Amino acid sequence: MGKPKVCFVLGGPGAGKGTACEFLVKKHGLAHLSAGDLLREERKRAGSQFGELIEECIVQGTIVPVEITCQLLENAMNKIMVDSKGEQDKFLIDGFPRNVDNLQGWTKQMDGKTDDRIVLYLNCPLEVCESRIMERSKTSGRSDDNIEALRKRFKTYEESTKGIIEHYRDLGKVREVDSSLTKEEVGETVSRIVEQDLT
Ligand code: UP5
Ligand code: MG
């Protein structure tokens, strides 16, 4: 049994990271760890000492300190490996790493523990992302699905996350996908990439 293989999934808010990951879970049985979902769960966990800090970051569209996110990711990954008795060894990490702090924290904490294969970069014009999120805001209940928070999320994405994508591009690890296409088209494309690079 080798190290768990990791595919990071990056792209702007509303680019379709969660949707593409769901497709890959159904089609290829990969494990999906959404950093945002893990933070939202931790925020509401009774007794969490990080609840307020996480909520503040989410509403302001800023990035939670890496120690918190990285620990949640590692715990979730370990639980899946234990529960599957080591059978599950392919992970989609959705929405992380988003900035230099995230990248350094992951490298430090996970050094040698994972095989970080590729970055699936879902590239989508921000106008398209905006209309998707504003549509979703009617039902999502997410405290950051409103135009003010969304603008802040876009700013953080442009200022911090794009540089991380470029870092991985320099390493030859980026697989870029036009995620403004239909869900089915994006699903088929990411599926081919995963078949090629994660198996
Ligand atoms: N949709 C999706 N694909 C479509 C397509 N091809 N055609 C038409 N519609 C499509 O999709 C968004 C909406 O678009 C949905 O309604 C979907 O049906 C439709 P989704 O798949 O949810 O997009 P996604 O990229 O996952 O959007 P999300 O809003 O989750 O992205 P964010 O990156 O903004 O949110 P995330 O949950 O990752 O992070 C939230 C916050 O948590 C961050 O702002 C930050 O404060 C914090 N955070 C950290 O601090 N650190 C982390 O490591 C991660 C998060
Ligand atoms: Mg998401």
From TrEMBL:
A molecular function GO annotation: ATP binding
Cofactors named for this entry: Mg(2+)
Residues binding a ribonucleoside 5'-phosphate: R40, T62, I63, V64, G95, F96, P97, R98, R142, R153
Keyword Nucleus attributed: yes
EC number: 2.7.4.14
Catalytic reactions on record: UMP + ATP = UDP + ADP; CMP + ATP = CDP + ADP; dCMP + ATP = dCDP + ADP
Localisation per UniProt entry: Cytoplasm; Nucleus
Gene3D superfamilies named in the record: P-loop containing nucleotide triphosphate hydrolases
Region (LID): 135-145
Co-factor remark: Binds 1 Mg(2+) ion per monomer.
Record remark: domains: Consists of three domains, a large central CORE domain and two small peripheral domains, NMPbind and LID, which undergo movements during catalysis. The LID domain closes over the site of phosphoryl transfer upon ATP binding. Assembling and dissambling the active center during each catalytic cycle provides an effective means to prevent ATP hydrolysis.
Protein name: UMP-CMP kinase
Protein's organism: Oikopleura dioica
